[in-house]
């Protein structure tokens, strides 16, 4: 499945951008919260809040029957989840609908269940395994149709944006091929407490300026709305 998506992504003119962000107050609030939240749900929700207010971040380039842009009404974040499959590491995509409307704890729970529950009990993973069993040419045909003929099906398959993070392992990708309009990831913290927030974007949908606004506004949301929610989590536990 990953090979199919990478092959289809080769046709997309992708651009990469990054912004060094300072989230020191949020980092302190995360350290004080019990139980301590992980960073992926925080960044996922922050970017979703920005994408909910910026329609361009919910648009897809659809090639057929004529080239046009499709704008989805809501965010669907596709989070890359690594699981064991027949003794090997395998990547799955977990779709989370409207992350901006969910609490951080709820997002954390969804991700934790996707990492721990049997694969057959997670509908999205079950669909992906079923599709992966088809012969290669048929799989490619299904993905080609889903990506280039109907925006709704493409969102169902891939979400409106993707998120894949290696920061917990002390690493980060510099660039990658992705089939979504945007993919968000971030680096481990530097010694001064800052980190790089990175975006991969489909240049057919918008230019680098929109990506720069998205990164800047995600930093602002992390330091305001997300910070306040994390502080509330800490106060609730203390009470």
If you had to describe this structure to a student in words, what would you say it looks like?
There is one protein chain. The chain is an alpha/beta fold and 239 residues long. It has a single domain, classed as Chloramphenicol acetyltransferase-like domain (Chloramphenicol Acetyltransferase, 2-Layer Sandwich), CATH 3.30.559.10. It is 45% helix and 23% strand. The chain has helices spanning 2-9, 24-32, 39-53, 104-116, 123-132, 136-148, 151-158, 208-238, and strands at 14-22, 59-62, 68-71, 76-85, 88-97, 161-163, 182-186, 194-202. It has a 6-stranded mixed β-sheet, with helices on both faces. Strand 7 and strand 8 (194-202) form a beta hairpin. It is globular, with a radius of gyration of 18 Å. It starts with a helix and ends with a helix.
Name the features.
alpha/beta, 45% helix, six-stranded mixed β-sheet, single chain, Chloramphenicol Acetyltransferase
Query: Strands of the biggest beta sheet: in what spatial order?
Result: 1-8-7-6-4-5
- Tally of separate domains: 1
Mean pLDDT: 91
Number of strands: 8
Specify the CATH class.
Alpha Beta
Largest sheet: 6 strands, mixed
CATH fold descriptor: Chloramphenicol Acetyltransferase
Output the number of helix runs: 8
- Which range does the strand content fall in? 15-25%
Unreliable segments of 5+ consecutive residues: none
Element-level helix/strand string = HEHHEEEEHHHHEEEH
According to CATH, the homologous superfamily is Chloramphenicol acetyltransferase-like domain
Query: Helix- and strand-based class?
Result: alpha/beta
Shape: globular
| Helix proportion | 40-55%
Radius of gyration from the alpha-carbon trace, in angstroms: 18 Å
Distance between the termini: 47 Å
CATH architecture group name: 2-Layer Sandwich
């Amino acid at each position: 499945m990953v090979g199919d998506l990478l092959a289809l992504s080769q046709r997309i003119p992708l651009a990469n951008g990054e912004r060094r962000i300072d989230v020191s107050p949020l980092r302190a609030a995360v350290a004080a919260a019990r139980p301590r939240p992980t960073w992926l749900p925080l960044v996922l929700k922050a970017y979703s809040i920005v994408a909910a207010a910026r329609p361009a971040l919910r648009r897809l380039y659809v090639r057929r029957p004529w080239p046009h842009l499709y704008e989805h009404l809501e965010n669907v974040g596709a989070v890359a989840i690594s699981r064991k499959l027949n003794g090997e590491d395998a990547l799955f995509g977990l779709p989370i609908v409207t992350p901006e409307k969910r609490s951080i704890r709820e997002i954390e729970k969804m991700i934790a269940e996707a990492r721990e529950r049997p694969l057959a009990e997670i509908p999205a993973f079950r669909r992906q395994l079923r599709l992966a069993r088809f012969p290669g040419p048929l799989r490619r045909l299904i993905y080609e149709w889903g990506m280039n003929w109907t925006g709704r099906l493409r969102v169902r398959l891939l979400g409106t944006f993707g998120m894949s993070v290696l920061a917990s392992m002390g690493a980060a990708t510099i660039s990658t091929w992705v089939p979504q309009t945007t993919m968000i990831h971030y680096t481990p913290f530097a010694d001064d407490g800052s980190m790089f927030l990175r975006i991969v974007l489909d240049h057919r949908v918008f230019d680098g300026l929109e990506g720069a606004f998205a990164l800047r506004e995600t930093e602002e949301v992390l330091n305001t709305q997300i910070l306040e929610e994390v502080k509330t989590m800490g106060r609730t536990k203390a009470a």
